[in-house]
Design brief:
binds iron/sulfur cluster; binds cobalamin; 7-stranded mixed sheet
Length: 500
Amino acid sequence: MNKILLFNPKSANAKYRIPNSIMSIAASVDGKYDWVIVDGNCEADSLEKIESYLSTGEFKYLGFSVMPGPQLRAAIPVAKAVKERYPHTKMIWGGYFPSNQPEAVLCSRYVDFIINGPGDYAFPALIDALENDKPFEFIKNLIYKATNGRIVKTPKEDLMEQDNLPPLPYDKLNEFYPIGKLLGKTYLGEKTMAYHSSIGCPFTCSFCAVVPIYEARWKAKSAQHVYKDVKYIKDKWGATAIEFHDNNFFVSEKRAVEFANLIKPEKMTWWGMARIDTMDKFKDSSLAAIRESGCKCIFFGAESGNDSILEQMDKGGTQSGEQILRFVERLKKFDIIPEYSFVLGTPAPTPEQVQSQIDFEIEFIKKVKAINPKAEIVIYTYSPVPTEGSELYKQVLASGFKFPQTLEDWVSPAWENFDLRKNPLTPWLTPDMIDKIRNFETVLNGVYPTVTDIRLNSLKRRLIKAVAGLRYKTSLYNYPYEIKLLHKVWRYRQPEIQGF
Ligand code: B12
Ligand code: SF4
């Protein structure tokens, strides 16, 4: 009775993906402990499925992977029910939400341990300790509640060499969920595989949830290793496209070009996330090689066109508004679609300054679109993350902003909108300001519908463009009900809410 159940709570409505987070954890115990996977994205009733395993009496450990937002909402009722019905199950949570909000998670009383950041070493070490009645207090990357009620965080471990990690158990996953079904149809291709080729990020942007966990560290698998894994999935299950889920795939020009050269003969389409200032340093020949190898679109955190805001966000010092515009022009000649994301609604000393900053960004985004109409724009509203010590976070705390104290509060509709970066409940943003951001976004999405929505045919695109065009030209964004109606009827896809 020491089996492990690994659960990926539902996070996506339609598009299934290879559940890489729990797959890494499965790899870490494979061959040592028996494990099963329950992928909430593929189950009609996750709790029923989980209970079908727990009722055998063979399972002692239940691992959850939890991102904020809808995935957290899906995790809580399951965790509660399991703790009530199977109180001896050891509940272990990992992923971005519990790592960044451990107090709320551990005070819920239905989670026993949190793995803080990478679990490749910490998870098997914890299971070994619990199985053998050995102390777990010395295991790195662990958060737990001590007997005196204090929350204890053990030190962080160094990032592991990614090429030395055990291979992901794809064949075993295929026994639970046919991998063919986890290769979804996207605008990149008929069968898109999700792959994670590096962890962390070497930068410290003060709005980013990656920073408190990875603290400016980054480790990557080699291009050869990535190619070998991709080729395995292509040959065995027919993948035609790749979504790289790395926070920052293009940190190393050498690795990116090496991978491009390896993947080119496979004729696959691919996508990844990058920084503008990093890729602007890439040679023309590298950008050309990346495009020719099948990289059709790259997601860039542009964040702001204003240099002082970029500084406030600690964007790394070398990105500027001028560079954002120049780079969007530069990418045209390589036929790479840049997906630029912007973060609007950062704090400022007065409401007038907050408002004028929002107006500035709206005009800046229009400039980007005028230079390169193919550029995709993703607009987030700034939702604080606990980047202790950053100037931005200090400003946030000074404004009186507080995170919820309990898990139930986190999943209230208001805080779910916070996680979706729609309505962040930050004291300096008035409802009018939020409306302006969202209304502009609606009009922009009307004039330039995203290429990632594969259900939107050219007739629908032309129609919505015509309806929204006049508003865009005259900057009349208020009450765009007619565009919202079309979006609703056609179930328009919003990458900023649903994830890419
Ligand atoms: C894939 C992905 C998704 C997928 C779903 C993934 C799934 N689990 O089903 C989709 C596209 C649906 C998605 C959506 C969203 N996502 Co998302 N997503 C990611 C992404 C890109 C990759 C996650 C991944 O697979 N990593 C690969 C594995 C190997 O790494 P890992 O998850 O960190 O896992 C390691 C550790 O965390 C730990 N661990 C993780 N799980 C577990 C479980 C156990 C039991 C243990 C022991 C350890 C453990 O060990 C693992 C191995 O070392 C991350 C960013 C990133 N690069 O990680 C964002 C990220 C997690 N998402 C994020 C967000 C905010 C969202 C959204 C809520 C909002 C949005 N607009 O994107 C939406 C929600 C939409 C919805 N309807 O639910 C944020 C979280 C930020 C935060 N404040 O915490 C991230 C960090 C992106 C970012 N930089 O902002 N997402
Ligand atoms: S470059 Fe991207 S992933 Fe890295 S810290 Fe900044 S926002 Fe986060």
